[in-house]
Please model this.
Amino acid sequence: MKLKLKRYLKLSIILLVAPLCLLQCEKSTFNDTENILKTVSIEQAKDYFNNSETLQRNAETPYITAYTAYITQADIINSDEMLTVVPATTGDSNSYSRILLLNINGEIESVVYSMFSSNNFTTGNFYGDILITDIDGNYINGFRVENGYFIAKYIYSQQQDNNPNIAYRTSNDDCSGCTFSCDLCTLDEVVVTASKKVELGNLYTSIVPNGEDLIEYVGAGDNTGGGGLNDSANTCQPGYVLNTDGICVLADNECPEGFALSEDGECIENPILGADCRSFEYAQPPGALQKACAVTDFGNNFYYGFVRADGSWEAGYFPTNIPLIYFTMPPFMTNGQAANLTAEAITAAILLTDAYVFENADGLTEQQVRSEFTNNIRNAMLAIGGGMTSTAPFTIPSPAPYTTSFFGAATDCN
Amino acid sequence: MQFDNFVEKKIFHLIEVLINEGFRHKNLIGVNLFSSIKTKFFYGMSYNLISIITDNNENIINITIHFNSIINRNFYNQFIVDYGLPNSIIVLDNFKFLNDLKKVNEKKIFNSSKVILDTKEGNFDDNPLFIIWKNANVNIKTLTKFEKDLTELTFKKTDCK
Model:
């Protein structure tokens, strides 16, 4: 059933929670439940991911990689609260995934909502399977969808496998005949009343399904905004923009020189970047799971100056230098997009470290600055789905020299 | 715009103001970058970028205007009308040193050091590295990065509180 999906087509869908015409009686019914729903703010979502051991990039083989720079929010039917939607990738290159966050009874709960198209997303309405797991990859629910309608629910049977964890499946596994993965190969199916809607209770196990349809599913590719969770106008992954047909397509660079294409497809001037994107020459050889680039002579001078209470002052700077460093980025981006985002991330890390040095200048040590700079780079790269390492992910024969340029910097390497 | 009025306030107030003025906003790891296609002016100095750092409660810690060049006498004369004379104008004893900034490269994984510069009190015409205003409500610093021919102006919460 599972087809090999082309990556660019996989990105052509978005998940949609469509606002419905609501009946007041339905709303009151929902409010009568014991579940108190609250929106998870974008900042709370970022904190959640920063504090999640599972999602930390250094965690051992995380199931899901979240892209917290692109968090959006979507309406929930029958509620004034919103779902917080985080683009994500799993180890399965055939899935198109989002992490959905909701505060339920005072706790932030997360699920991973993954779509597996059976026809490469070539039709307006979705055909394929929906998999819902927790962020560790533990099975919660699954659905079969045809022509945009949920027509069957998959039932996991404890008899088939004592460990319904699909976290560590890779696309190289020979499980092409399985519904979702080797561990979830043969699932029982229960026919359900065909509907374009799915209940929150089918996503979050702490919510008892009460028969209400709270999320509407719409098939991909139609002009109503595609399929899935509609987190506002543009929910495409980094480097992709929504075209007039509501499809995420690779962003073309049609901007004049000196301008850069933003993630929502507009040409903007990006006049001051601490890092030139040409420093980051990403490559991904066959077999490599991620992109990587090598940069030589990477660093920055962090200035400080302060006046003490007694009127004395001190001024100086902290030079930093890493002779050779490697940056990594997710495989779905183009090399140029990865370079652009890395330049922005490094710029943010530099500015944040600048502020730290400014704030704490009196008595600050070089070790503290080094530690702060390192953490800021790691966090900035993590926020765009990338990483930093001193070990080569694969052989990179020609590292690029680090270039800083405030004006005249190349801001678009795509 | 009176940027100092926004220091220690919730950033959403300033986000609204800046977006209405045509800035684009991007937040990455707590650094709020506001860039403008159209060049903006602050006391006669041109700029296209403002960076704002907030604390965990979204309160503004500092606001930095990244000027497109080194501040000039015109800027200084206008600025002191509103903010008074600075508390310190820090200039380098040996200006030539600025063109030969120390570069650490000891073939370690991550090299770093601390360089304390020989500085003295000076005046604006001495090419100040820092100009510092310590006010009751907000501290203001200019930092001129001569090797890059530009100045950054930062409003930050006062240390006096």
In short: The helical segments of chain A are 7-10, 24-31, 42-51, 335-359, 366-383. The mean pLDDT of chain A is 69. Chain A has two domains: 7-249, 259-401.
